[in-house]
Amino acid sequence: MSAVYDRYAQAVLTAKIECESYHPTQNCNHGPKNIRLRVDGADWQIAEIGTALHRLTALPKDTKDGSGEKKVPLTWAVVTQLSRLMQDHNYGWRPSPPLNEWMRQEVLRRYDETGHLHGGLKFDLSKLGWTPMPHQVAGMYVGALNKRFFFCDDMRTGKTRTALLTLAELEARGENPFPVLVVAPASVIGSWREELEKAFPDWPVAEYMGGKRKNLSSRYKVYLTSWPTFTRDMKHEEHQLPPLLKFFPGYAPKTVIYDEAHALCNTSTRQSIAAKQLARVTEFAFPMSGTPITRDVGGFWTAMNVLDIRSFPDPDRYKDMYTDRYHTEYKDEIDGLRPETREEFYTVLQGSMRRISKRDVNKDLPPVAYSTRVVQIPAAYRAAYDEMEQDMIAHIPDTSEPLEVMTTLAQLTRLTQLASSACDVSVEMVLEERENHPMYGEEVPRYHVTMREPSWKIDELMAIMDENRDTGNPLLTFSPHTQLVKLAGARAEKEGYRVGYFTGEQSRKQKDKYRIMYQNGELDLLCLNLTAGGVGLTLNKGDTVVMLERSFAYWQNHQGESRADDIMNAKQVYVIDIVAANTVESRVRQVIKDKARQLSELVRDPRIVEEILGGQPIHIR
Fold it and tell me: Could you tell me which of 55, 31, 39, 34 has the C-alpha nearest to residue 99?
């Protein structure tokens, strides 16, 4: 940097590929590799570009050779960010010829969605005993070509088989993907096994679950495990390998598939941390979810880290670069993607994620038919609801204890309960042990709320059941509150209906039994908690879903509604919302719409927000 530059000439950022390890020629074929950066310009321009480089999602590091130059990871995301940053600052960007060739190859690979540029499929589809759908064939191609890929295809579009086909394509390319670890909700492990046995019956499969799981043979190609088991077996002491990694030859599976990967959106949970740790040591990684975010686009950072840890090592740098983040009195909020970098974000994700909607799979699929049944809270219980809404305390009829809450979140939870049924309240005095709590060390009341009859919402559900009695179609009914769906089931049983349950309290054997009974037409009503029964299950014997309540989480509601879909047969699905007038449920519906907007923006599918609640009113009065 000893040359003298015109202080007002355009500065240029030159870049070349450099191996992470030292080689005299730098002509090596192994990774990882970096980009070595040098600024040709005046001192003030060097300083300005240095400041700009600190906005990258991967923090630049010194080369430590006294040159003052920097190095950053050689990744598609970093190259995309560098190009845009130099353009924004009106500086030159001069990649070396090898780096230009690397970028050209990346563009060809990431934008090749049909196989025309890379020789097409290697796997012989005629070997299958079934015919995959066109979007599944396209998915197996892009998944195998890019090696780490997020399948955001909509619910009920066959993501499981798309992922399995991707493994077959990798094997056909000579890139052995086995052993494979599939991490999924416990409720769908049986469904995964069934799909494997139907699609690829020659692949040995085992369930890595239960007390004897660590004694399993290593001969299997595919291992199925639940999120809780996975999280537990990735826990380890410092300087020791997790038990899960010790189980596999080579101390890691070759491939990990994260089913219902929206479970990773809370970046600080143990399962998110475990997912990131495992993805670092696997060659192939395939997250899957039709609803990849649960709250806002900030939660997508874990998925970005799983797909490309070198580009996205830090959640705050990701959020600063790509999310529209603002500060409130208590915490940061995110209102979608940053308008200034939205298109760059989509470019970064090219070749790493795709979205296929139900309507893309079958153009003849009719839109979901939504309707709203409005119920009124009886006068005696309405007074308790209004008191809670205004004063965060409620005197509930037929109970001796008043119900108090201390936080807005607790108030919202209690309001949704009081909008649905009568409640019993009991109080227990407990010692407050949270050191950051203002009542630390003192006895505080803990309120236990039990929903009970009468329930005006269950009254309406029984009216729907009566209307549906002679159709031969069983109903699904959902609520985020287990107590409410159990009350609904008890009432239905009392009235002579055949009832099953998915509340999180059933064993896997019981869940499988209820699922099969429902699909065989042996149940009239299946009562499901949105968390326990809303994901991954095929429950399309009937055509009607009744939402006793909706969750604040858009993804839970959408997952629940989709259980009844039969996309290939273009079945009409009906969703009935039972909503209490003039209650917090209108606020819930508004929050759902706001979260749907962020998902719509992330996956570039405006239909998501356009079709929310089928155009039914948000505010129910």
Answer: 34
Residue 465: inside a domain, yes or no?
yes
- Which pLDDT tens digit goes with each residue over 514-567? 999 999 999 999 999 998 877 778 899 999 999 999 999 899 999 899 999 988
The CA distance from 612 to 532, in Å, is 23
Going by C-beta distance under 8 Å and a sequence separation of 6 or more, which residues neighbour residue 40? 1, 3, 5, 11, 12, 13, 14
Query: Would the CA dihedral through 153, 158, 163, 168 be positive or negative?
Result: negative
Residue type, 528: L
For the chain, 621 residues long, the average pLDDT of each consecutive 10-residue run is 54 90 55 89 89 95 89 97 92 95 96 84 95 96 97 94 98 96 93 95 95 89 96 90 92 96 92 96 97 94 97 96 87 92 97 95 94 95 84 64 63 87 81 73 76 96 93 93 96 96 89 92 95 82 95 90 89 95 92 92 92 87 82
Mean pLDDT (the chain) is 90
Helices 554-561 and 585-603: crossing angle in degrees, nearest 10, is 80
Q: What pLDDT, on the 0 to 100 scale, is given for residue 2?
A: 41
Say which amino acid occupies 136: Q
Judge whether 94 lies within some domain.
yes
Of the three residues 290, 323, 356, the one that is the final residue of a domain is 356
Tracing tokens 């203002």 back to the chain, one arrives at: 438
Closest CA to 488 of 516, 523, 453, 522: 453
Q: Tokens at residue 242, please? A: 């997790």
Number of domains making up the chain? 4
- Return the number of other C-beta atoms located less than 10 Å from residue 555's C-beta: 25
122 belongs to a structural domain: no
Provide the β-strand partners of residue 327. Answer: 332
- pTM for the full predicted model: 0.89
Range of the domain at 416: 379-452
Beta strand pairing status for 70-73 and 33-40? antiparallel
- DSSP codes, 369-430: EEEEEEE---HHHHHHHHHHHHHSEE--TT-SSPEE-SSHHHHHHHHHHHTTSEEEEEEEEE
The answer on 435 and 461 residing in a single domain is no
Q: Sign of the CA dihedral 292, 293, 294, 299?
A: positive
Check whether residue 291 and residue 148 sit in a common domain.
Answer: yes
Give the 3-state secondary structure of residue 188.
helix
Per-residue pLDDT reduced to its tens digit, 140-192: 999 999 999 999 999 989 999 999 999 999 999 999 999 999 999 998 898 99
Same domain, 97 and 141: no
Our separate counts of H helices and E strands in the chain read 22, 24
Q: Both 162 and 246 in a single domain?
A: yes
